[in-house]
Amino acid sequence: MSKNIFILIGVMVAVGLISGLLTYLRTEKMASPADITSKGLAAVQRGNVNFFCLFMPLLVGPIAFFVYRNMLARSSHGAQTTYLLLAVGIAIVFTVLAAAVFKMRGFVEFTILHLLYVGGFGWMMPRLWIL
Questions:
Q1: Which DSSP string corresponds to 91-127?
Q2: What are the pLDDT digits (tens) for 33-44?
Q3: Considering the entire predicted model, what is its pTM?
Q4: How many angstroms separate the CA atoms of 34 and 6, rounded?
């Protein structure tokens, strides 16, 4: 396997662990009270950890890998800056969508999660590739 795959796996593990910990600790703020009362706090926490710690990094990581690799192939000059700006733009859109869908419930947590993904996949991964 190439060095870039190992970097991707490392970033996916780090982002997954941090986002899983954040969502585990802040489930009361992110989940609806009706969901917590019907399923119980432990079940909602387990579902959040499974989603944000396992599913999301496994989804976002390969997409980020292939997008950045294609941007480098097309134009290596400025690809890192363009990719970071793309990641920031997507994070802003998803933060606004999360605020609208969840009616501002867990806004701070979703903002932190989006910043974590931008920092991990949009900034750290491309920086580590050039080392």
A1: HHHHHHHHHHHTTTTTHHHHHHHHHHHIIIIIIIHHH
A2: 999 999 999 999
A3: 0.93
A4: 41
